[in-house]
Amino acid sequence: MDNQVFLYNSLKGEKEKLEPLHEGRIGMYVCGPTVYSDVHLGNCRTFISFDMIYRYLSHLGYKVRYVRNITDAGHLEGDADEGEDKIAKKARLEALEPMEIVQRYTVDFRKVMGQFNALPPSIEPTATGHIIEQIEIIKTIIDNGLAYESNGSVYFDVEKYNEKHDYGILSKRKIEDLISNTRELDGQSEKRGRLDFALWKNASPTHIMRWPSPWGIGFPGWHLECTAMSTKYLGDQFDIHGGGMDLKFPHHECEIAQATATTGVNPVRYWLHANMLTLNGKKMSKSTGNTLLPAELFSGENDVLEKAYDPMVVRFFMMQAHYRSMLDFSSDALTASEKGFNKLMMAYADLVALKTSNESSEDVDALIASFYEAMNDDFNTPVLIAKMFEAVNWINKIKDGSATISKSDLQKLSDTMGAMIFDVLGLQTVEAGDNAVLEATMEIIMEIRKNAREQKDWTTSDLIRDKLSDAGINIKDSKEGASWSLN
Ligand code: AMP
Ligand code: ZN
User: Fold this and answer.
1) Which residues line ligand 1 (CB under 6 A)?
2) Are both 408 and 451 inside the same structural domain?
3) Pocket of ligand 1, candidates 29, 35, 225, 246: which has the most ligand atoms within 8 Å of its Cβ, to mutate?
4) How far is the C-alpha of 205 from the C-alpha of 434, rounded, in Å?
């Protein structure tokens, strides 16, 4: 592999060189959605970030096995193993089978991912399809003395685990602080320690999602499914584990503890966390209702939107931010992204038809190298896009005759830009959308202006140029004729 990728490992708190456990192959696990309601744009941002990472690693030639689960059981409403199962609750409210809820929102999730042109993962396992594997892990943790049964439930013994290992290794929290910040157990508690978390929960008679186990009828704890499914498909140790920043604690911290308690080794080499999408400065979240749904964006039907946006414009907007930076949503920001997206796609379309010269006026190899440098630096898509806009400026100059490109350089640039735009950023040409309409309209306007100039009607010609300039379109007159480009 010629390209050296450096990625930010949350476990170490620094960037390090990607060195896969098996040469040329990468195992990557990303926590998937809990399928009890529509995915919002915040969820989509995390999955699109990892889609880009999957795409780039595949582009470099790695054989990536990408596992992203579907949480269809065990995710309770409360953080401390209390409250109802989110899916069971929705099923109860709508008088449906839990699996009808799961089916509806899984299908919807895949549809939305398709609209954003996110590639399907290599394996998409479900929690309910891996109950046996979860039970086996619990048995091993009990045998290893790090979990205990209590009234038909099984809890992970955090303090005992912490005697030999480090609970808090990922989230950089100290166990003493965690204990003092957690509610004291009351006399009724089944747990020995306040940080202990459920591996298995005894099902009350009304709990509809239930399975037999050595400890009685119950259901698995939420953190356990990811340990079971990641290690089943990727091995006891694998390369990359991802998810949104908000999953770092307790979910991922518990995953490390469970896997280490089972096998004795830390399961993951590189922990990657994608940052949050905010709306009005606050995290987009199902529980607070501060959300925007993809369908609302594509139809324009939400008060925060000035108009409808194409999924590719939304994807481009996300790619303009680094995956580890917070991103605030606004209609203005999306409109700016739409302009940028159109400008990039139009320049790319022009590129293939450019007139070539004997020599290039720019160093194409250096430009292409800068694309890869950006991506190798922890998948820095905003820098990649900025570098591609340098190419766009060059393309527009070649169009108006003030710069040149050789035939072989043109081939190189169009191949690499095509790969970056379509394969890595995962963008698609917007069919018959704004681009096509703009192209057709501009063709007519340029024709009218050409006629005016031939008749020496400079007033009309200048008026058209100035009005277009106000609208963000630049007209350039040269010996070869006039050309236009977006600002
Ligand atoms: P959930 O379905 O709630 O389990 O969330 C699915 C994924 O979306 C997880 O990786 C979360 O970390 C992520 N997520 C939730 N809210 C946001 C947000 N506002 N911005 C980005 N990612 C989010
Ligand atoms: Zn998970």
Assistant:
1) 31, 33-34, 42-43, 45-46, 243-244, 246-247, 276-277, 283-285
2) no
3) 246
4) 57
